């Protein structure tokens, strides 16, 4: 095929030529993402949106996987399933796995609870529980029933959000573990939202007719001519202020200007500051976390108090609803991997691992599990012993006398690797 023929048969996104199909009947179109959740209070110009977004981003950064465990409930491998594909690659046609988790957290924080809805499955959930989930969407809970729940879910085939009634057993309903702090009517977050709404209303009034200055003119305004004269004088003062670098204007010696005070606004700002600090303390957050300048200890506290409970609630509910008893008996599970050493330098990780194993606090495989690695098959990796110290033989403390060994045994000992003498960069890459 020549170059001209390649151009003729090539697909062009901006020129609808044959054989490119015509998408005139592609369905309803929007200028925005119709499946994106909308906040119940609107996208406020406030700290609330920043807090929600920060929590959702950090929660979505933690991996959630469909895994297989060993007899000790340790991670062995990832299960190749549609569910794991939704959790690691793409949840639906519009969202990656990370974007989907972020959507879950944002909706849960805003509404108090969110439904994770299997949209496409390998088998009918009403017929059998042994089905694989192919795509998932978040659903807004409209009504609760004893065994069912009414949801509003985006239908990508029609391009609309539609209401459906589904059994509770087929959807994962994740409730906000921080509900008392964020979603209760009298919670700190809701009180802060109301104060911020009042402040926004005051700001709008300040920009649309709220009095800041009163000018007392040296004449009585009773006639239309005087009224027009007063209006010209007002516009003259406004022109001076708008064109002044330092907000300075001049007046006639017979005029009197009164500056209005704002004691209510000052009191409101102090209340907002108080509620913001209280919210930070209840969520384990600081302004440094929002700014990205928090230190290691602050971030660890924030992850433990806020992020981990949220991610754990999501993983536990998915495990409860999307894995059958048979699957769980086969050592399948849904677990999350939060690396506690994420904020720790590599040298510090190696030092921590060395201290834990030397002091017989954790085994080698337990350390590997913490950093998200598979257990090592070497039996020594499961032993809580310090390989650098001679161990008792049959309960008796060995003597300090040297023990003779064969040349073959000495060779084996020399060639046997110590798991914790391996450089940390090689260990992480194994």
Structure characteristics:
10 strands, 430 residues, alpha+beta, 3-stranded antiparallel β-sheet, elongated, 41% helix, 15 helices
Task: Provide a short characterization of the protein structure.
With about 425 residues, the protein is an alpha+beta fold. It is about 40% helix and about 15% strand.
Write the SSE topology:
Elements: H1 3-9, H2 47-60, E1 63-69, E2 75-78, H3 82-88, H4 97-111, E3 113-121, E4 133-144, E5 148-155, E6 160-167, E7 172-175, H5 179-182, H6 188-206, E8 213-216, H7 224-242, E9 256-259, H8 263-283, H9 287-291, H10 296-322, H11 325-329, E10 332-337, H12 346-358, H13 364-370, H14 407-415, H15 424-429
Antiparallel strand pairs: 1-2, 1-10, 3-4, 3-7, 4-5, 5-6, 8-9
Task: Characterise this structure.
This protein is an alpha+beta fold and 430 residues long. Among the domains are: 188-281, no CATH class; 354-429, no CATH class. 41% of the residues lie in helices and 15% in strands. It has 15 helices and ten strands. It has helices spanning 3-9, 47-60, 82-88, 97-111, 179-182, 188-206, 224-242, 263-283, 287-291, 296-322, 325-329, 346-358, 364-370, 407-415, 424-429; strands spanning 63-69, 75-78, 113-121, 133-144, 148-155, 160-167, 172-175, 213-216, 256-259, 332-337. It has a five-stranded antiparallel beta sheet. It has a three-stranded antiparallel beta sheet with strand order 2-1-10. It has a two-stranded antiparallel ribbon with strand order 8-9. A hairpin with a 4-residue loop joins strand 5 and strand 6 (160-167). Helix 2 (47-60) crosses helix 4 (97-111), helix 2 crosses helix 10 (296-322) and helix 3 (82-88) crosses helix 4 (97-111). It is elongated and about 105 Å long. Residues 6-10, 12-21 and 416-420 have low confidence and may be disordered.
